[in-house]
């Protein structure tokens, strides 16, 4: 297969993990005879510094012309503590999602057998927890009408029927590929936008009689996720709730550095780790490249290259089993492996297997 990838490394640890993601993709391409090419483009603080825009037109063009975007992270502390900053790195990511029409964010929450003891939750609770959060990504408060005055400010949480319907269809498709259990997460006891979500879901559920649909308020879902994570199979929710719940979900596995995600919709699909740019670790060769590498597995699977995706996943599991791990998940007294060493080990394992 011929694939043209837009490579957006971004900020902080982004460039380091991006290199490892690319190396894994190249190793897979070589092994299976695929023709994969890369075009690098600027995003986030790196793009603001270079051209004054967190998502420049040229980057949009490169993304549009690509078959997929492999994205790493954006964010820089110099903007975090400056509420007056006119332009922020995060706007690059939001602009990219909106302009590429990426309304469906797929965030799997998986655990790894060898890392269960690292979860902040008790091992018996997280063992075999395996669910997917489908987060709506281009609507709600993130993109609704805003006002920012000195004495008053607001964000509007607006959703339309068609926005809700298309994301629910995707969620139902995922449920059908999995354990056929969909949980619609909302705040319908308080929010009008949530009541629209619930009405649309109740109208649609009859079309999917083979899927068990249930409804849960977001506060309750936040609690259930840590009390009984195995309850969930597929959960679907609006943009803001999904942002919050997926950070919570990511720590169930023991490290935020392990979870990949995919964003799909009308334009070029995008694959990215769910962790951020971790500026404190920048350049230190300590960031875990696995979430980026697993994003490569999701990218391959998106193009129906399931054997290739499975090989990447096996390589990741083998690296964990072999204690080839970055410091935050290494066993006490275990050897030191950095971002590069873990990536390299995985590349070599792919070549040899
Ligand atoms: C995420 C991030 C982004 C979001 C930020 C960086 C804008 O937290 O992808 O979850 O809020 O969507
Ligand atoms: Mg987030």
In brief:
The protein contains 13 helices and twelve strands. The protein has 353 residues and is an alpha/beta fold. Strand 1 (2-10), helix 1 and strand 2 (35-40) form a beta-alpha-beta unit.
Secondary-structure blueprint of this entry?
Elements: E1 2-10, H1 14-32, E2 35-40, H2 45-51, H3 57-65, E3 68-73, H4 77-80, H5 89-99, E4 104-110, H6 123-126, E5 130-136, E6 146-148, E7 153-155, H7 161-177, E8 181-186, H8 192-204, E9 212-217, H9 218-227, E10 234-237, H10 239-252, E11 260-264, E12 270-273, H11 290-302, H12 306-321, H13 339-352
Parallel strand pairs: 1-2, 1-3, 3-12, 5-10, 8-9, 8-10
Antiparallel strand pairs: 4-5, 4-11, 6-7, 11-12
This protein binds 3-isopropylmalic acid and magnesium ion.
Query: Which band does the percent of strand residues land in?
Result: 15-25%
Poorly predicted parts: none
Main sheet overview: 10 strands, mixed
Give the helices and strands as they follow along the chain: EHEHHEHHEHEEEHEHEHEHEEHHH
Widest sheet, order of strands:
2-1-3-12-11-4-5-10-8-9
Class from secondary-structure proportions: alpha/beta
Distance from N terminus to C terminus (CA atoms, Å) equals: 20 Å
Characterise the protein shown here.
The protein has 13 helices and twelve strands. It has a ten-stranded mixed β-sheet, sandwiched between helices. Helix 1 runs parallel beside helix 13 and helix 11 runs antiparallel to helix 12. The protein is globular. By secondary structure, the protein is of the alpha/beta class. Bound molecules: 3-isopropylmalic acid and magnesium ion. The site of magnesium ion has 2 residues, from helix 10.
């Amino acid at each position: 297969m011929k694939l043209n990838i837009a490579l957006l490394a971004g900020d902080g640890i982004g460039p380091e993990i991006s290199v490892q993601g690319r190396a894994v993709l190249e190793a897979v391409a070589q092994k299976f005879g695929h023709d994969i090419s890369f075009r690098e483009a600027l995003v986030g603080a790196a793009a603001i510094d270079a051209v004054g825009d967190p998502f420049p037109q040229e980057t949009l063009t490169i993304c549009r012309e690509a078959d997929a975007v492999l994205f790493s992270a954006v964010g820089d502390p110099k903007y975090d503590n400056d509420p007056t900053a006119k332009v922020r790195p995060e706007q690059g990511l939001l602009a990219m999602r909106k302009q590429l029409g990426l309304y469906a964010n797929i965030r799997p929450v998986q655990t790894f057998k060898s890392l269960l003891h690292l979860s902040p939750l008790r091992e018996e609770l997280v063992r075999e927890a395996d669910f997917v959060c489908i987060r709506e990504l281009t609507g709600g408060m993130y993109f609704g009408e805003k006002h920012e005055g000195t004495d008053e400010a607001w964000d509007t949480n607006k959703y339309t029927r068609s926005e809700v319907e298309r994301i629910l269809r995707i969620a139902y498709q995922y449920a059908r590929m999995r354990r056929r259990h969909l949980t619609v997460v909302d705040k319908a006891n308080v929010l009008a936008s949530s009541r629209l979500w619930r009405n649309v879901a109740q109208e649609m559920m009859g079309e999917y009689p083979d899927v068990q649909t249930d409804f849960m308020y977001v506060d309750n879902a936040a609690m259930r996720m840590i009390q009984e994570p195995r309850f969930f199979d597929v959960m679907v929710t609006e943009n803001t709730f999904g942002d919050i719940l997926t950070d919570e979900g990511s720590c169930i596995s023991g490290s935020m550095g392990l979870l990949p995600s995919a964003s799909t919709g009308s334009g070029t699909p995008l694959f990215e780790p769910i962790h951020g740019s971790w500026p404190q670790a920048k350049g230190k060769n300590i960031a875990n490249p696995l979430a980026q590498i697993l994003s490569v597995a999701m990218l391959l699977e998106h193009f129906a290259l399931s054997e290739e995706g499975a090989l990447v996943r096996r390589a990741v599991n083998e690296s964990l089993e072999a204690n080839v791990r970055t410091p935050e998940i290494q066993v006490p007294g275990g050897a030191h492996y950095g971002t590069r060493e873990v990536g390299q080990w995985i590349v070599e394992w792919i070549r040899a297997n």
